[in-house]
Every structure is written in structure tokens, then in C-alpha cells.
Amino acid sequence: MQFRDLKAQYNNIRDDINREISKVIDDSNFIMGNQVRELEKELAEFVGVKHCLTCGNGTDALQLAAMALDIKKGDAVFVPDFTFFASGEIVSLMGATPVFVDVDYDTFNMSPLKLEEAILNVKKDGKLNLKAVIAVDLFGLPADYPRIKEITNKYGLNLIEDGAQGFGGEINGEKACSFGDISTTSFFPAKPLGCYGDGGAVFTNNDKWANLIDSYRVHGKGENKYDNVRIGINSRLDTIQAAILLVKLKAFKNYELKKVNRIANIYTNELSKYVKTPIINNGFMSSWAQYTIKLESKQLRDQLQIKLREEGIPSMIYYPKPMHMQQAFEDNLYNFKNNNTKLLCDTVLSLPMHPYLEDEDINRVINSVKKL
Ligand SMILES: *Cc1c(COP(=O)(O)O)cnc(C)c1O
After folding, report:
1. 279-313: b or e for each residue (b if 16 or more CB lie within 10 Å)?
2. In this structure, what are the phi and psi dihedrals at residue 43, rounded to the nearest 5 degrees?
3. Looking at ligand 1, which residue's alpha carbon is closest to its atom 14?
4. Do residues 180 and 161 touch, judged by C-beta distance below 8 A?
5. What is the pLDDT of residues 255-286, one digit of tens each?
6. 211-238: per-residue pLDDT in tens?
7. What distance in angstroms lies between residue 106's CA and the mean position of ligand 1's atoms?
């Protein structure tokens, strides 16, 4: 059994993928080919925003968003303490200070209450400029944007949605990657919509930021690549990856999202009496980058993982360490207690989840967790 079975997905769409890859090679238009533009158009339509700009990966997408918003030294940027490293890394890379905010125990996402508390603390201290919030759609579930936006509006902060895991999720029919002033995603192979290498995208309705990002991603280009009007980076999506994503986006829209939601429902119905299963609040929809359960203690969690492994069932711990406890952030200005994050790091376990899980495998996972 695979934790996330990319081979099974490929087998399902092999002919289309192979044909589209061959076409790119035949045309030899490897950089910024037509497929890149076409993909950007389709992604913007699917998400419901004006501009989509693809780039090299999800981390670059965050950096491009931060560059467009001019995040810099002296700025405080509020980031959930429970997330993948890149969400905070990019803040420090820009010279700004990440402030790690505790998450909700139920949803794994940034707590709006704790966010406001952190903002007030930093404001009172007066050392940093209140600049932006990077909210993360962890495990496929959009963060609580209705409440987070109230807070960013109240304190005049920019909002970046890190939708690297969230592509395909929804709040009241509105799609993930449309909630930030600027939103980002990743096409890393194991993400909800993945390519066959690295890839990413930035989304925004703002023309000025879209133009800036279009320039930043190609060496700060002006009229063309050899007219350089600002310092940028080199971060583009390969035409081959765009061609692959055009095929995969169809499968994603047509059936993959439905399939993962069906599997999540079965897991939850069968397991909620035995372990804490994910909570999806009213109006929210997850794209199930991960299906993550919570155990009563670290000891029970670690035991369950070992026993599942013995039965040939892969599981993962996302994430074992709070961001504020990472060595890279040890000199950070603010370290709040963040009790939920610490508890989650010790007690979470992600189970196999992907659209091609067979019923037989789903039942094996369920029976093993029940038994153990
Ligand atoms: C994967 C991920 C990223 C980074 O994406 P890459 O494409 O690997 O650079 C950023 N944020 C979160 C929350 C992620 O899960």
C-alpha cells in the first residue's frame, strides 16, 4: 500500500500524459511555451481570480508574493506555528521577522483568537511594523478566512494564503487560492494537484501585484528579458510540467476531488469512535492533502505508527516539531507558548490518502487502526 500512490494515478492517465509530454518535446518549446499560458488561464478560471502566474515551486510562489508586497527587515509577519517550514522560511529570507501563532486543535489551522493576541503583543512592544499574515490551508482545509480577514482588515495587514496543500478546497463555494490578497500553491508531486517535478503558482486579483510578480519571476524584466528594471529571481514553470498539469487538472476536477472526499468520509465514519478524526466546519470543504488523526498521547501515537508499519501500512507524522522550536528560528524575537501546536506535534498521525486507494486498502487501514 502506498501513502500517496502517484504510479496508480499515472496508470490511469498514461496515454494522455505521454502524448502531451511528446508534444512539448516535438515542439521543443521548453520554457514559457503555450501550455504555460493555457494552464495559467485554466487555473485562474478554476480558482475564480483574475491572475494566475506559475513559477518554479511553492516556496518561490511565497517569495514572489512577499516581494510584491515589499515584505522586508523590520516587518512582522504572522505565520502558523504548525506548518511546513517554507511558510516561515520565506519571511526570514526576506529579512522580516516571522511571528509564530498557535493553531486550533480541531482544524490544525491558524487560530483567529491567537492571531489577534499575537498582533496586539507585537504592537504593544513597538519594535516591528505590523505587515502581513501568511495563513496556511493545512492538510487541504482552507484556514478560517472569514474571521482572519476581519482581523487583517482591522489592523491593516496584508493577507497571503499559503495554499500549497489547499488547492481544490472551498469555503461556502469559494475556492482555495482565492482568499489571500495574494495566494500561492505548490505542484510538488504529492500535493493535491501535483506535477512530475517542482512547480508552483501565485494568484491575485490585483493588476499591479500581478505585473510585479510577472517581472520578478524573470529577472525583474521590463519590456523584455534583457531590459531589467528591478532585481528579481529566475522562477518559471517548465512547459513539460504545464502540459502534465493540464492533463492532471482534468482528472482533479472530474473525479479526484470527489474520490478523496468519499474516502475521508468512510475513514471518519468508521474511525471516529476510536480516535480523533478531522473536523471540517460547516461550509468548508477539504481537498485532503492529508487525512490526519489525533491520539491521546505521544506514546499511543508512536505505538500505533510502529504497529501499522508492521502490518505494511505507511503513515506519516506531519509535523513533528513546532516552527518556533526549529533551530533555524532559535534567535527569533517572539516565542509564544502555542500549546495546541506542541500537543499536535506529539499526537498527530496521517494515514494513507489518495484518489486511487482501493476499498480493500481502505478497509485494511480501518481494521488495523480499530484493532490496535
Ligand atoms: C509544500 C509546501 C510548501 C512549499 O512548496 P514547494 O513546492 O515544495 O516549494 C509551502 N507551504 C506549505 C504549507 C507546503 O506544504
Report:
1. ebeeebbbbbbbbbbbbeeeeebeebbeebeeeeb
2. -65, -40
3. 164
4. yes
5. 999 999 999 999 999 999 999 999 999 999 99
6. 999 999 999 999 988 999 999 999 999 9
7. 22
